[in-house]
Design brief:
Length: 108
Amino acid sequence: MGEFIDFLIVIIVIYYILKALFRIFVPVLFENAVNKAQQQQQQRQQQYRANDNQQRQYRTNNNQQQQYHTRANPGQGKIKVDYVPPKTKKKGSISDSAGDFVDYEEVK
């Protein structure tokens, strides 16, 4: 019986020691993880800005080329529609083939 009580005391002491260590180290680990995530996000944002500046420059050059081609081919870009779908009835209206309807009367 004495060994069992010693075992329980050792388990309880280990539990409180681990609990104290977790209270110290877990916030530090979370802080490191958050700082790492912030740094990664800042790097992604810087890369995005660099790519965005390159794309803007490309678009500017591309728009200048398109304006040149548009002036050269004024007939290009016209649209011809061969099929126009028939207009449908409103969604709220009831068609004639829906069946017979009976007026509703409230019975008290």
